[in-house]
Amino acid sequence: MRTVSAGHCRDSFFHSPLPARFVAWYNTERYHEALGNIAPDDVYYGRRERILNRRQEFKEKTLARHRRRNHGMTGLKGTDGTEKPSLPPTD
To answer: SS3 for 19?
Structure first.
């Protein structure tokens, strides 16, 4: 019976293209919670703050759009058909 040693498996794995693809994905595309949900390459190359600022701007615009949309909702009817009072704006 022929067996494969751990060294052989390790060597053949690290010489295949899979580890290089995994490392590239891990460093460039995978968000890391410990880094503020930023990819390691973005932190390393100094893009972290710009990304976080862009995300915050997007979040604020989205929330403002939802507030405007929901503020105009009056005369809503419940499942029983009765009109529900609208809530006062929270500014």
So the answer is: helix
- Which uninterrupted H or E stretch holds 77? strand 76-77
Separation CA 48–CA 75 (nearest Å): 45
pLDDT in tens, 3-25: 444 445 555 656 777 788 888 99
Cβ 52 vs Cβ 60: under 8 Å:
no
What string of H, E and C letters represents the secondary structure of 33-57?
Answer: HHHCCECHHHHHCCCHHHHHHHHHH
For residue 81, give the DSSP letter.
S
Q: What is the dihedral sign for C-alpha 47, 53, 56, 60?
A: negative
Residue range 50-76, pLDDT digits in tens: 999 999 999 999 999 988 888 766 556
